[in-house]
Amino acid sequence: MAMTIEQLNNASLADAMRALDGVYEHSPWIAQQALAQRPLRSLTHLKHAMSDCVRTASSDAQLKLIRAHPELAGKAMVSNTLTAESTNEQSKAGLTHCTPDEFERIQQLNADYNARFGFPFILAVRGPRGSGLTKQQIIDTFARRLTNHPDYERAEALRNIHRIAELRLNDKFGAEPTLGNDVWDWHESLAQHSDPGYAEQGQLTVTYLTDAHRACAENIRQRMLECGFDEVGIDAVGNVVGRYHASAPGLRSLLTGSHYDTVRNGGKYDGRLGIFVPMACVRELHRSGKRLSFGIEVVAFAEEEGQRYKATFLGSSALTGHFDFQWLDQKDANGIAMRAAMSHAGLKIEDIPRLKRDPSQYLGFVEVHIEQGPVLNELDLPLGVVTSINGSVRYLCEMTGMASHAGTTPMDRRRDAAAGVAELVLYLEERARIDGDSVGTVGMLNVPGGSINVVPGRCQFSLDLRAPNNAQRDALATDVLASLQRIAERRGLRCTVEESMRAAAAPSAPDWQHRWERAVNALGLPLHRMPSGAGHDAMKLHEIMPQAMLFVRGENAGISHNPLESTTNNDIQLAVDAFSHVLRQLA
């Protein structure tokens, strides 16, 4: 029979320790320290209490915990000396039935890994869905992580240990993240659609109004109907809009959603998590026959990433009334104008002005999004509350000097354009670091017509500057551009600067941020507030109504815009639970 948190809270220390035995491999001190925090408010609280004990432990204690784990398909498995928990997990992953070639490959990886890091390779072989990784997925992950930096890999081992512990606690408490599983599966279903040239390589790429993009829209539309939305349609820019009516006519609605397009060779959760989490909540309301004192409108925005055309936030801009009709003349890499692509998709351009929302008909906008960064991972926290979406400014620049012979031009007589930009890059690193939460990036760096034996006469580069508020962003930009000018003058160079994009910061509305905070607290989690360095559809809706966001932890150190982008069924379940709590607060 499954244990309950109440039973654990009321048990003697000895009985409680026995109940948690085996959660963390051969490390009873973790359970003992976590139980000192009783009464525990929830299973989620227990999971975090145990992981936090590890996070705050000494490096030696952390290393001892890692080394307490057995190798995958290693000596302990062969000699049948694994713990019952490890035996069950390795058996379910098929590691007890490897082919000779698979066994030999894993043994070599074990040897190489131990030689490099000095501890065994740790992987939660039951995976992010809890249903198990394949042997090939395990071997591929093993090989990939073998190239990691030792400090990074040590942290990754601990993160996998926490995931193993979470799954073991789920078993002990009979906790099944049913909604998290469903939403995880919805992502897998949607990821079957990918643009040509990428689909054949097993890569996920969905750009605006391609066949794959339109198939995604139809997938979401059908899913919304299955969830019980009262109205579902695809609007004039390709947004999929689902409405769940309020308990009575004339009541306002909560607006929510995110985007379903992707970057090239991207991940499955960026944007899409913010569509499926509220859809799961609506489905549960429909199943229970409940109506709220407000409607729920979920919008799957057709475009946010700016991959096929230069326009970004195309889907959400239509809702704010800021769709720029000059975008229609933009052409993609194949020379297809956006106007033609929309016509081919059957979209009615003349209806776009009607998509503008009347803010008086809405309570506000909320968005759930994968974090796309490492912060929550490092804190061992599944959820974080966004305080503001960073303001940003981008520039396209070119430094011009004098191309000259690399062998005959003395170092003190050079006008090296690339060296001038390199100096700026180093200044930018230091200047952004001063603010603590500003960031600056030179993401494009190009020497046109460069040659190995020529001092660069031209260097093209980009600047991307971001900060939590507009004043801080502008101060950063002022200092960086002033430094650029000083560097150019001192080195005898010329520089041109073109501003290509400017977006205002979008601070969360305090009352809406507090709703997310109350929801996170109700789950038994400590509260972590954080800015968003990335832009989101919420920053567009911020122009006409209050908004606030919830971040969900990503796996693999929170990497995003990458095929390794991932999250777990348990973290998704918590996001659904938090969203449901916000709905209850509003009701």
Topology:
Blueprint: H1 5-10, H2 13-19, H3 28-35, H4 43-55, H5 59-67, H6 75-78, H7 84-92, H8 100-117, H9 135-145, H10 150-173, H11 178-190, H12 211-227, E1 231-234, E2 240-244, E3 253-259, H13 273-287, E4 295-301, H14 314-320, H15 338-344, E5 362-370, H16 375-379, E6 383-389, E7 391-400, E8 404-405, H17 417-435, E9 439-441, E10 445-446, E11 454-455, E12 458-467, H18 470-491, E13 494-503, E14 506-507, H19 510-522, E15 529-532, H20 537-541, E16 547-552, H21 569-586
Parallel strand pairs: 3-4, 3-5, 5-16, 6-15
Antiparallel strand pairs: 1-2, 2-4, 6-14, 6-16, 7-12, 7-13, 8-11, 9-12, 10-12
Helix pairs in contact: 3-4, 4-10, 8-9, 11-13, 11-21, 12-13, 13-21, 17-18, 19-21
In short:
The chain has 587 residues and is α+β, with helices and mostly antiparallel strands.
Question: Mind explaining what this structure looks like?
Answer:
The two termini are 36 Å apart. This protein is 43% helix and 15% strand. The chain is of the alpha+beta class and 587 residues long. The protein contains 21 helices and 16 strands. Strands 1, 2, 3, 4, 5, 6, 14, 15 and 16 form a nine-stranded mixed β-sheet that branches. Strands 7, 9, 10, 12 and 13 form a five-stranded antiparallel β-sheet that branches. Strands 8-11 form a two-stranded antiparallel sheet. The radius of gyration is 26 Å and the shape is globular. Helix 3 crosses helix 4 (43-55).
